[in-house]
From TrEMBL:
<comment type="similarity">
    <text>Belongs to the SAT4 family.</text>
</comment>
<feature type="transmembrane region" description="Helical">
    <location>
        <begin position="131"/>
        <end position="156"/>
    </location>
</feature>
<dbReference type="Pfam" id="PF20684">
    <property type="entry name" value="Fung_rhodopsin"/>
</dbReference>
<keyword id="KW-0472">Membrane</keyword>
<dbReference type="GO" id="GO:0016020">
    <property type="term" value="C:membrane"/>
</dbReference>
<dbReference type="InterPro" id="IPR052337">
    <property type="entry name" value="SAT4-like"/>
</dbReference>
<feature type="domain" description="Rhodopsin">
    <location>
        <begin position="39"/>
        <end position="280"/>
    </location>
</feature>
<feature type="transmembrane region" description="Helical">
    <location>
        <begin position="98"/>
        <end position="119"/>
    </location>
</feature>
<keyword id="KW-1133">Transmembrane helix</keyword>
<feature type="transmembrane region" description="Helical">
    <location>
        <begin position="219"/>
        <end position="239"/>
    </location>
</feature>
<keyword id="KW-0812">Transmembrane</keyword>
<feature type="transmembrane region" description="Helical">
    <location>
        <begin position="55"/>
        <end position="78"/>
    </location>
</feature>
<dbReference type="InterPro" id="IPR049326">
    <property type="entry name" value="Rhodopsin_dom_fungi"/>
</dbReference>
<feature type="transmembrane region" description="Helical">
    <location>
        <begin position="23"/>
        <end position="43"/>
    </location>
</feature>
<feature type="transmembrane region" description="Helical">
    <location>
        <begin position="185"/>
        <end position="207"/>
    </location>
</feature>
<protein>
    <recommendedName>
        <fullName>Rhodopsin domain-containing protein</fullName>
    </recommendedName>
</protein>
């Protein structure tokens, strides 16, 4: 193995390390998805008070996404993203790089499969037409099936399993790379199609609801972010062939980056659609009390001097408003697009 690395014929990768780009992209999309899921949990637990199965699945997907990001960070800190020039005399970095890459594959497919399942269940709550229901069930079945297939292929692609990262010190064998890539191409095609359907179908659903055009556009746009996740899957496809490179840990940098983008965007898209109650509450708080009025020297709403009858009326109005803000009477419901 070391001799192969020393004689690697692939001179196209001139940079010594691509690790910084992995750190940056992973951190950005991990942070975005964490914020989105945090807001989702706040809305569903504190405002709407209806925490459903889709919410639990999204939290589970977020936990796997955190583990996936940690693997990416550890991967980048060891061998991944670095060229053979750096790794040729560092067998332990090679071992750690392959180990965390192997773990990352498993965590990636788990994250996106569970996240896609959560989004699909959420959309089923908005669906009334039978054709749309069957489409969503088909998406769930296809996505889950190819996810399970890729999960087990990634886990058991080498025999013994530890040969994947201990290939420098033990004997073993792995699946033919062409066969493995064929499975990954199949998975990518199905995943991109499912993400595209999940992104387009909400537009058809929202446009049939009784809402003004501005609200429809905003909600459909948020739900349609899943289309960008499908773009990340498609963008990764041209780089899949780099897995055959002798400079594997460096050549597969773009695969890792696109995978983190896909996972982060999918979770973010599935969670942002639930935060409209926060936006509505914030809007009512913002427009109910003008910011240029002092609450210490004048009345909270009209600005009249304290002690006057008008001021007392304003104070009563403000008290009623404050009670509304601190104890919002949100109806318990399960529809995401219309809080």
């Amino acid at each position: 193995m070391l001799q192969i690395l020393k004689n690697s014929p692939d001179p196209s990768f001139r940079r010594l390390s691509e690790s910084p780009s992995r750190y940056l992209v992973t951190a950005v999309f991990l942070g975005t998805s964490l914020v989105a899921v945090g807001l989702r949990c706040f809305v569903r637990l504190s405002i709407v008070r209806a925490f459903g199965h889709d919410d639990a699945l999204m939290v589970m997907a977020m936990l796997f996404n955190v583990a996936f990001a940690v693997c990416t960070f550890l991967n980048a800190s060891s061998g991944a993203g670095k060229t053979v020039t750096y790794l040729v005399d560092r067998p332990e970095d090679i071992r750690r790089g392959y180990l965390f890459w192997w773990l990352g594959q498993i965590l990636y497919v788990t994250t996106v499969t569970i996240g896609r399942l959560s989004i699909t269940i959420s959309l089923l709550r908005l669906t009334v037409e039978r054709i749309h229901i069957w489409i969503l069930y088909a998406v769930m079945a296809l996505s889950t099936t190819v996810g399970i297939v890729l999960f087990f292929v990634a886990m058991f692609q080498c025999q013994p399993v530890s040969y994947y990262w201990d290939r420098l010190s033990i004997e073993g064998h792995c699946l033919d790379m062409d066969l493995l890539l064929g499975i990954v191409y199949m998975y990518s095609a199905v995943a991109a199609t499912c993400d595209f359907i999940i992104g387009i179908l909400p537009v058809l659903l929202i446009w049939r609801l009784q809402m003004d055009r501005r609200t429809k556009t905003a909600v459909a746009g948020i739900l349609g972010i899943a289309c960008i996740a499908s773009a990340a899957v498609i963008a990764r496809i041209p780089y899949l062939g780099s897995a055959k490179s002798p400079d594997f840990l460096h050549a597969t940098t773009q695969i890792s980056i696109c995978s983190n983008v896909e996972a982060g965007l999918g979770i973010t898209a599935g969670s942002l659609a639930t935060v409209r109650p926060i936006i509505r509450l914030w809007s009512r708080m913002t427009f109910a009390i003008p910011s240029n009025h002092s609450l210490t020297a004048s009345c909270p709403i009209s600005g009249k001097r304290r002690g006057t009858a008008d001021c007392r009326d304003d104070a009563n109005s403000h008290s009623t408003y404050a009670s509304y803000v601190t104890e919002p009477q949100w109806p318990t419901q399960t529809t995401y697009a219309i809080p």
